[in-house]
What we know:
The complex is a heterodimer.
Chain A: H1 10-34, H2 36-46, H3 50-72, H4 74-86, H5 89-115, H6 131-148, H7 157-205, H8 212-231, H9 234-262, H10 270-297
Chain B: H1 8-34, E1 46-52, E2 55-60, E3 68-75, E4 86-88, E5 91-92, H2 93-99, E6 102-108, H3 121-140, E7 145-150, H4 152-163, E8 168-174, H5 186-192, H6 196-203, H7 208-217, H8 220-233, H9 238-251, H10 259-271, E9 281-282, E10 285-286, E11 296-301, H11 309-312, H12 315-318, E12 324-329, H13 335-338, H14 340-367, E13 386-388, H15 395-400
Amino acid sequence: MSPKDNGWDPNSLLNAWIEAGTNYWLTAANNWTAMPNMAEGFTGIFGMPKSQSMDSWLNSAKMWQTMAGGLGAPDMMESLLKGAGATPEITTKMLRVVWGGYFNLYQLWLKKLGKIGETTEAYKFENLDQEVFKNWVELYEKEVQPYFHMPQVGLMRFYQERMNLVMDKFNLYRAAMSEFLHLIYVPLEKSVHVMQEKFDELSKEGRLSENFKDYYNMWIKILEGHYMTLFKSPEYLQTLSRTLSTVAEFKTAQHEMLVDAMKSLPIPTNKDMDDLYKEFYLLKKKVKELEKKLEEKD
Amino acid sequence: MSPSKIPVDMILSKLAEDVEKSQDVIMQSQDVLLGPLETDIATTPYEVVYEEDRVKLKYYAPITETRIKTPLLMVYALINRETMLDLQPGRSVVQNFMNEGVELYMIDWGYPTRKDKFVSIDDHVNGYINNVVDFIRRRHGVDKINLMGICMGGTFSVMYSALHPEKIKNLITTVTPSNFDTDKGLLHVWMKGVDVDRMVGTWGNMPGDLMNFGFLLLNPARLMIDKYIGFFENMNNKVFVENFIRMEKWIFDSPDIPGETFRQFITDCYQKNLLIQGKMELNGKRIDLKKVTMPLMNIYGRYDHLVPPEACDRLTKSVGSKDTEDICLDTGHIGIYVSSKTQKELTPRIFDWLEKRDKDEEKRRVVKPPAKKKKAAKSERQPKASARTGSSVDKKKRANVGGQKA
């Protein structure tokens, strides 16, 4: 889906973003200069002469202002986009892909930011905020993964393919692992919320304990309950299964690449050894059977 | 909001006290942690009387007059090690049996390596266990022996008893899963969705560390946080530290599980629940639980989170034996063996149960003259016996020790 289909105009958004960036850095630079004492403190810490650090900071800000100001001007934007239109189609396509990817990610961040501060309900693990991870994987599969699956050519094509596969599987494994770790973290967060509520309750009833250990015991019990609920939820089971699969896929891809690297070394690979072990296992089994038959004959 | 009644000053002063106490504990713990500690496990002397591949058979000689005449074989799980049954003096199942005059044998499955990845459940049950049982029968000149299985080892023992009922006199299963179709234990829930073929394809054998990580995840609040908070609070207590370290040594001593065995156990047991239905097969031979006709004692823990009662209590109703007994103890999966309280209850019940069946058989013999005794085996091979204690032998040495081959 293109950004425009979504009802957004990427050009105006880019323009607004540059303007916002310019304003931010200029404000930051102005604030910095308006706080000489603070600046002095920092320069003291880093041991740099005040004028040097301040000058480079202001210079960078001015450069950005000039560049961004120029970029932000409507005529400049127009000529830039016209130029882009004149470039070969592939360049335009790439620009669109990069911009589209950035735009999708930006939307995700906005959604995520909107969720900060939302309270989570205790002992409930349905509809967890896993959309971020799913969207990230979706984005990765749509925008980045195809590059790793591009057909390779030439003498080294197989090696390159395997290397690309490792990178691809690693990215998917990392995404799944992040989601899994996030899930494991959720009960901690929820248990803290419940503790806050318990504190309020106990406080209202005037039953607060002076003993810190009582609170710890209360918390660990709540945490245990949350984990038990989480571990039985379909969300957890799906994530666990996905994580184990991506770990296995990454490990397999990594192994195949290592086998390539080991070909030049006088070391047998796992596959070589497994073939040997299988033969050894079957032979041993046969020998044991024959030995038993001989014993029975005797 | 109502006015706050939080006694902040009291809480803070208590907190300060606790911090001071913690500092004292840390200071005192230096003496304990840096001093000599007795943390060896499995120190009861034994003899290795039989060896086959990585598998060893340990023999613990009784230290009193033999009370139960039939020798007993203990089969432990492939997960973790049998050293748990002899964790420390005074909390040792092995010593309890020796004190009661039992001829005790125990299988040490060793540490499977990559070359063991093709070893299947059939190789364990109809291979190693069967060879060990035959060896003990020959050694004692008996037709049948007593068999006691622990956890997955119990499941293997049930399979063995169904396939070779003529060699087993009494069967005892402890915390043994036989019905896998339950959602009470998290393991049962998790294993249903595991892509076992992919796992075995990737790792070959199932890594012990990965299994252990899974076990920790069963209750992270207790096993990854609270347990170590407890350790921190008692670091100045030498006895506590020694016991804690012994348990840590046992828990994290996890051999890998042979790939093919893991694959079949997960697929046929956890995912298809074939065993309890009498549909599971080993090398083409169906395991018919109706053929388990010997007396059966089935022991499990009410609070077992790994093998919940629902996974154990269908066994006695599914076997062919009429002499069955279910015992549900108020303990967990490990507590059944290491809790002093449970030990006081459990072991005497097992001895009494076995002794009663020994005596019943004697009575039957008096009434009816016994059939002509069949020679247990035609060729008796002398075992290579070497006395050693478990703790003094390292992994490499275990792997290299030569011995009698079946």
